[in-house]
Design goal:
The protein is mostly beta strands. The chain has a four-stranded antiparallel beta sheet, with no helix packed on it. A three-stranded mixed beta sheet has the order 4-1-7, with no helix packed on it. A hairpin with a 2-residue loop joins β2 and β3. The radius of gyration is 37 Å and the shape is rod-shaped.
């Protein structure tokens, strides 16, 4: 007959390990940024590299990490303007188009055009 072992103290339950620390999840930034393109006055034709993009005001979706793009603005009666646009231009790129200065016409008698009148 083998003697039974004496009951010993019951081991304390091991506390559960705390969950691993989780860094807060930052929302991923979108790959593109929308830039509103405006001109003063409105209605200028906008192009880039020969490609017509539309008339102001318009919105462009640009790559967040993309290089700046050259935009050409043209409006009748105004000087054309070129401006660079990039994601850093957001939310608005506003361009002023100066009024075109027409050369002054000489004031004085009309030149003789060789037109005979009174026949």
């Amino acid at each position: 007959v083998v003697p039974a072992s004496a009951p010993g103290p019951t081991p304390a339950p091991t506390p559960p390990e705390p969950p691993p620390a989780v860094e807060p999840v930052r929302p991923a930034l979108p790959a593109t940024v929308t830039v509103k393109v405006e001109s003063v006055p409105a209605g200028a034709a906008v192009s880039s590299g020969g490609e017509v993009l539309g008339n102001t005001p318009l919105e462009l979706d640009l790559m967040r990490e993309g290089s700046p793009r050259a935009l050409e603005f043209k409006l009748a009666g105004h000087e054309p303007v070129t401006a660079a646009v990039s994601a850093q231009s957001a939310p608005v790129l506003r361009v002023e188009l100066p009024v075109r200065r027409e050369p002054k016409r000489p004031v004085g008698p009309a030149p003789d055009l060789g037109i005979k009148t009174g026949r």
